[in-house]
Structures are given as structure tokens and as C-alpha cells.
Amino acid sequence: IRVRLDRGRDDRVAAGMPVVSTDGLVGQISRVFDRYADVMLTVDDGSAVDVVVQRTGSRGILRGTGENEGYKARIQYLLRADEIQVGDLVVTSGLGRRFPPNLQVGTVSNVEKREFGLYQLAELTPSVNFARMEEVFILTAGARETSTLARGQPGATP
Fold it and tell me: For labeling, which of 55, 143, 147, 156 is most exposed (least CB within 10 Å)?
């Protein structure tokens, strides 16, 4: 699931730059052209974001389900012993320096604890309403305070 922005290489946008809205993390720039760029949303099945459950500090990897309707994601690799509850706020961890820490990602909507294994699985409802998103900010490399405002067109590219 991708969104096309009206900013591109001419505006110094580069692949890998984080994209946020006032509601939280949207995704990252995946492809750049002279006058536009594509964003891979956090709910895309190719997306992977290191996240933290804010209440407990439990870490996992957020992966989108890739569903065209519903905009859902799952948190994988949460340790089975970690206390995760429905309603917990999930934020970016900042590890890997791809995304700044503490960007809101969403809330836990379901927890699946299996009887065996090392991990549990949690479903996440994103904090961003992708169906109604109109403006986003591109966080430019090197200066997180500087950003470029862009207008998105959901569903512009497959």
C-alpha cells in the first residue's frame, strides 16, 4: 500500500526518509522521482519498523498486513513474558536510526499469546487514518527539525 506525494528529488527528498503526520508515523519514502515520491505505508506488508510498547518498554517489529481495506499491522517478536494489553500505546524505538524515537504508531487492538514458543503476537490499530490523510511531513536526513510539507494522494500507485 503506497501513497504518492507531490515532492521529489527536486525538493531534496530521498529514499528512506521517514514520513509523518500530526497523528503519527505514516511510513517512509520508497521511490523518488524528479517531482514526486512514493511512500511505503507502515501497513504495507513490505514495511518493518522497530517499535516499543510505551507502558512496558517491550520491543517488537511492526509489520503491515498489506490489506487494502482496514489498514492493519502486527507486532512480531514480542517476548511471550512481556505484559502487553489491548489499548497500549506503541511508538517507534529509534533503534537503527531509521525513524526518530517516540513517534506514535498506534494502539494494541488484540494480543495472541500461544501456549508455546518464545513470542506472542499483537495486532495494532494505526494512529494515522490513512483513508483521510491529506498532508504529511517528510523528515529530512541530518536535521529532524527540518521537514518538507507534502500533499498525499492515497492509492496513487499499486
Answer: 143
